[in-house]
Amino acid sequence: MPREVVKSAECAPTPNFFSQAVKVNGMVFVSGQLSRDAAGTIIGKGDMAAQTRQVIANLQAILRAAGGDLRHIVKLTAFMTDMSRAPEAWAVREEFFGAHPPASTGVQVQRLTHPDFMIEMEAIAVIED
Asked: What Pfam families has UniProt attached to this entry (predicted)?
């Protein structure tokens, strides 16, 4: 089964031990995306809406590199450090996904990889070859 590693220069590079995404048989598995720009700078410190926008922009860039876009996402998982801030994230999500959102799960976590990160999202997309 052919397996393609997907990379987008529009996102911060990943460490050598994982990929931004992997595409196999039309399915794209996108690793957890954080609120970092292509230079690795944290965007939106303390601002859930700004962080969510950057995370979704990263997902969008990676899916473009895989030959798709946000409409191809079938499953989205969000990890948040404070679920009381979830409505801010969901409002931004709605701007991007509108009336046809993907299946979703929200999980509260104690901490992400840096204390300034408030949200991380991973996605599964289906892009017909």
From this structure: Ribonuc_L-PSP (PF01042)
